Amino acid sequence: MTETLRSDGRRPDDLREITIERGWSAQAEGSALISFGGTKVLCTASFTNGVPRWMTGKGKGWVTAEYAMLPRSTNSRMDRESVKGRVGGRTHEISRLVGRSLRAVVDMKALGENTIVIDCDVLQADGGTRTAAITGAYVALVDAIEWAREKKFIAQKAKPLIDSVAAVSVGIIDGTPMLDLAYVEDVRAETDMNVVATGRGLFVEVQGTAEGAPFDRRELDSLLDLALAGTASLTAMQQAALQPTVREG
Amino acid sequence: MTETLRSDGRRPDDLREITIERGWSAQAEGSALISFGGTKVLCTASFTNGVPRWMTGKGKGWVTAEYAMLPRSTNSRMDRESVKGRVGGRTHEISRLVGRSLRAVVDMKALGENTIVIDCDVLQADGGTRTAAITGAYVALVDAIEWAREKKFIAQKAKPLIDSVAAVSVGIIDGTPMLDLAYVEDVRAETDMNVVATGRGLFVEVQGTAEGAPFDRRELDSLLDLALAGTASLTAMQQAALQPTVREG
Amino acid sequence: MTETLRSDGRRPDDLREITIERGWSAQAEGSALISFGGTKVLCTASFTNGVPRWMTGKGKGWVTAEYAMLPRSTNSRMDRESVKGRVGGRTHEISRLVGRSLRAVVDMKALGENTIVIDCDVLQADGGTRTAAITGAYVALVDAIEWAREKKFIAQKAKPLIDSVAAVSVGIIDGTPMLDLAYVEDVRAETDMNVVATGRGLFVEVQGTAEGAPFDRRELDSLLDLALAGTASLTAMQQAALQPTVREG
Amino acid sequence: MTETLRSDGRRPDDLREITIERGWSAQAEGSALISFGGTKVLCTASFTNGVPRWMTGKGKGWVTAEYAMLPRSTNSRMDRESVKGRVGGRTHEISRLVGRSLRAVVDMKALGENTIVIDCDVLQADGGTRTAAITGAYVALVDAIEWAREKKFIAQKAKPLIDSVAAVSVGIIDGTPMLDLAYVEDVRAETDMNVVATGRGLFVEVQGTAEGAPFDRRELDSLLDLALAGTASLTAMQQAALQPTVREG
Amino acid sequence: MTETLRSDGRRPDDLREITIERGWSAQAEGSALISFGGTKVLCTASFTNGVPRWMTGKGKGWVTAEYAMLPRSTNSRMDRESVKGRVGGRTHEISRLVGRSLRAVVDMKALGENTIVIDCDVLQADGGTRTAAITGAYVALVDAIEWAREKKFIAQKAKPLIDSVAAVSVGIIDGTPMLDLAYVEDVRAETDMNVVATGRGLFVEVQGTAEGAPFDRRELDSLLDLALAGTASLTAMQQAALQPTVREG
Amino acid sequence: MTETLRSDGRRPDDLREITIERGWSAQAEGSALISFGGTKVLCTASFTNGVPRWMTGKGKGWVTAEYAMLPRSTNSRMDRESVKGRVGGRTHEISRLVGRSLRAVVDMKALGENTIVIDCDVLQADGGTRTAAITGAYVALVDAIEWAREKKFIAQKAKPLIDSVAAVSVGIIDGTPMLDLAYVEDVRAETDMNVVATGRGLFVEVQGTAEGAPFDRRELDSLLDLALAGTASLTAMQQAALQPTVREG
Q1: CA-based max dimension of chain B
Q2: What is the pTM of this model?
Q3: Which residues are involved in binding phosphate (chains A, B, C, D, E, F) (predicted)?
């Protein structure tokens, strides 16, 4: 790979600076304020004993997610969806993606009849908000599960988490595949892909979209390579943030 | 590939019976009633001279799409979104996918300041409704553009279409990659992928989701192979349906 | 009546070409795709064992209907009601009319605690959509009831249907009463009337509206004569479509 | 007609006590508080110079109406439609009926490019709210037009009103046709009809519905006779309420 | 206080003409049509045995209120909130204020598991609609409680009302504090305050807002003096309207 | 005042720990993350050149505000208002209060035809969210105005701010007036008051509510004393946070 430097000085295969402030929220059972460069997402996990009525009695739990952006998280102010009276298509789509991604690493039987709702609120947006949301949500999820174990809502030796999960964006800009696109890069990308992968390196979601020209198989392959390297790094950062496993006060 | 036969007698790499009734609707500028087996989608293209106000004066056109299901297109009746007062997340997501897929093969400059709205209404659903919608929508789009050319809304030698587009679902069932999943297969699939590709074999969208266990790189590759073979067949059927180019009456 | 020929060559007391494709939908318990000339309505009947909570324990059933138009069923595209977030007044009004018309021929005691929802979706509109909807809905209703009888949800000798029901529009154009108005006629009519009648020739609904000048008693009488002749013909076509009573696969 | 006395002592062809308080509202250009027995409807007419944008430049006016019920106008409280976030089907249907009925007696050319919105708010409901609304709305409409004439928004010698309009309900109870049904009668009626007629005795709307058994031609005729007698009486009361034509301050 | 006369001839500390028509509505358990000069509000109290599910089993009742304006209660017509599909901020705010004000004088234990909903519908608006609503709502509330006592839903010797409640607006216009502002005064007021007080002269709500320049402590004090004199007068009028305690027919 | 210590060790007239992180958001023209103890509110000010159409040409600006809570800012998760499809009454009420409070210190002529929207999003709630929102919003407002002055949208010597504004809650608990209530105190307070005051000590809003027993004039006076002392302290902290006037980077 030639040494193309990006506008913020990164090499094509560099992540932005990633920070994970575990336990940021005093109210939630689990939480993390995660930053991917200028993108900041507050992820909270709300644990409730019991499941929605239509799931009762099956011995299985439920994990769902809601994603939203603050109106001035972006460069120019957006109208609030609550004021418009409807949730937009993009919001719905990302909420569903985050929920599916988390459920892929949860053993619902082991979770038991409990519900976890993950809220991912974008406080500041600079590209990659959905991937930051998934990566931070996993940290909040772990803490909510540990909280429930302490409260005896989950059995001491149950293992509701079968793997970890993280996500990153990749894209092709001026013919070069690049990792973790900032907003200025995202709008220029010919192809944009979001990859959700587990700690073991398996795919949970692969969503590639040709924004400009359609892409070929070789380009797809190089993007997947780059993404799996990125999610491996993010997995390591998640594990670091989760040390020690028991959250401090 | 071993000779696993599917519940409807197909081999893993067989499409279902595909039919395309071009010009089904007497009202629309372009239309097609497309069937992928038991899935039937009515696609209409509505051409309007002019673009939304925020696009005026840029010399470019706009193509958008709306997808919806009739309440009893499915095995048990769903509530109407109009009655519920809001469009669901899945509907939004698919509408956006269909729109992006069509825009990927349209040269907006060549379209000029004109708008085409594609409606894809599922009359009967048996898996693969979004892929049938995209494949049928392309046929309706071609006819709407030809209609506009005859009406002189588009220049005689303009080429708004830079390629064709078709879509198909693939999935892994009991470890075997299979093409064009029917509903009973879809619910059993461990991994489900929708691939949108152009007539030249380039990718427009790749959306793979682990419904059960996460999938690895090898599985991803075999699904992509299967999907590209499927979209190539669909491309041929689209071309056949569009002969002769000038729609009869 | 003088021999005024209409724009499509019909005499004043002619119906348009009527077709009824019984069992069009593979999913519904009863269905019919009905055409009144260029008007095409897909009617499906969804049978559910049980009634809404507020009706439970009274030993009576419930029949209701929803009417809607596809956005491009009309000559120029309409916005979807699901996207606008509210059902329009005309839609509501026709849904209520269809429901009342069907309930007029159902013995709710004989139906037992079962619910039938009829969906009438206009695929193509060329005048008379509500009357086509009612006429087709009756066919779908019969099949849903027979389906339920086979499934033993309704007793073998119960007779939930006490009569049949059909509907037609009539109007006065240039002083001449005419039957079954096409769209181009409908917009020119001074008076417009929809009549719903049973197979025995009794009225279920009479809705006459002066679109231009108010009308007198003599005009009203001639419209009613014309309408009853029309519904008698439609009744015969319904009976033909329903032969044999047991639907073929 | 045999001398069947009704629960409130009326004969079958009696109206309830009708009162019309013209000019009840100090704010509106025209208004009337009308009572049909226990039914009380406040009708206001709001005159605006100009028409909606889509009608501009055609030299014609517009008249529309909105009907609504106060939540405790009825015997048990209903939820507010504003709180439910949507206007119900019945409300829509009646609003449309009131608007059509008034437009039938207005010469839109003579009205000029002006808009009149009639609001009919049911303060107390005891059957026949839509017919009281239409009858009272006409009085409010006359005053709004006279107000506009004084303000020179309408030419001195223009005649926007080509006739008057009134409405009444009729129904068959225990086989006897009855005029102007109170609520307790309405729920028992086998057939229910609302008739809107002009001062000259012509029909504007005829809406008959079989609530129980379908009805025959002879029953329809007797109901129409009764209704026309009722609207003739109401017309006389409207004229009395409108004397003198110029409203007192 | 200097003898500044107001546009309607009142002195600064005069209320407008107040009328209370108790029992105006034939349907509600309690009702009052109250006028503060040109402001007319219809207040109805709907009594229901039982409380919302989330309150069941606590032996306590619930009182809530909804405030709304008719579209032409004001000088120019407002769009209906039901048609807009959402309740506006001002409406919500006043509904909440009315509910809190009434609850302040109700002993929920003595009310028992019963619910009272107060509807305050502004028929004509000329300033002070929220204060008229609270003052009239109290009268409706008393009658609904007495109705329930007669029906034995409330024990014979229970005392659900611990005090009475009334409200009035005050404001500073051209430096002079004034009582009970009419609309033309309200728009000119530099400071606007609504005071809700009990019959014993205690405060339930004090809501003062600087519309123009912020106000000082001395101005606040003079407004409170004026308001308490006003609510004392209103309390006397409420007591008079409620004589005799048992409502006539 | 006796030395009653509060659950968190404060004396009755102590504020909680207040922090103001000016410029927290990289995107907004002005911003502050403010904490009142466990209450954290992110305030952003969005400056737009121009005003809404209905205000154009009057030479005056506009300032408005929107308040909202993240779903898990509270102890148990609330449903999102965007998902419910409507903004609740409390949210509306507080948004309106924040907007009015800020407008009280802005000279709209000096602001010129420019719009400032303040968003106050509660990230964590522990009582006093509306008072923290107002206090933080003022800081964001100052910076947005300075930003606009640098960009020449506001004249160099214009003085759009005529005073500063801050807010605090006070309440009576067990008979003792207390300043700046935390959530656990708020739910126990007999009387709850929010006071918005300017830097010069004048009132902008006084909103006192009897949550339990109504309150008397002496209690009202002691609450006002306490509140003015509190807003004076907050004013000093705002001024400190705003040093130096020109925001760093």
Answers
A1: 58
A2: 0.89
A3: 90, 128-130
